[in-house]
């Protein structure tokens, strides 16, 4: 009987130690803060949106796939932007409603582009790019681009 009780105690104790260890010492440490806002813009947003804006006379499935990947990448970057960037440098700005609106507008536009691409609809893709995707860039930059 007492042996059983002691076993339970030991098991309970090691569970507590394990839980503590999991909180106190993660198995990994992040040594690189990730992309900053300028890097997201230059390495992800600008090249991907340029592909979407330059798209015309799309012929092959490979070309459509590349455009879909570009639009989806803009959405992925949108998640990072909405959090103020992985390095957190724009975390304060990201608390503002207008920052979130511009980011969401950009992501919604990219989602429209994805739909147009899946429908193989070049005109709809052109409209999504010009009417929806471009304005949020300008609107956010008007307020937040460092002078
Ligand atoms: C929610 C705000 C926001 C949105 C939306 C946004 N940007 Fe930006 N962008 C920024 C900020 C902030 C910077 C400046 C980053 C820094 O240097 O710290 C920037 C910088 C840039 C730069 C570098 C400019 C330079 O000369 O330093 C480019 C290029 C750029 N953005 C392209 C775009 C494009 C294209 C879009 C739309 C598809 C877009 N951005 C949408 C906030 C935004």
What is the C-alpha radius of gyration, as a whole number of Å? 23 Å
The number of distinct structural domains comes to 1
Structural class: mainly alpha
The number of helical segments is 5
Largest sheet: none
CATH architecture: Up-down Bundle
Q: What's the N-to-C terminus distance?
A: 75 Å
Bound compounds:
heme C
- Unreliable stretches covering 5 or more consecutive residues: none
Brief sketch in words of this structure:
The protein is an all-alpha fold and 147 residues long. It contains five helices and no strands. Helix 3 (61-82) packs antiparallel against helix 4 and helix 4 runs antiparallel to helix 5.
Task: Provide an overview of this structure.
By secondary structure, the protein is mainly α. It has a single domain (37-144), classed as Four Helix Bundle (Hemerythrin (Met), subunit A), CATH 1.20.120. Helix content is 73%, strand content 0%. The protein contains 5 helices and no strands. The protein has helices at 2-24, 37-54, 61-82, 97-118, 122-144. Helix 2 runs antiparallel to helix 3 (61-82) and helix 3 (61-82) runs antiparallel to helix 4. The longest helix is centred in the first third of the chain and has 23 residues, at 2-24. The chain is globular. The model has no long low-confidence stretch (mean pLDDT 88). Heme C binds next to helix 2, helix 4 and helix 5.
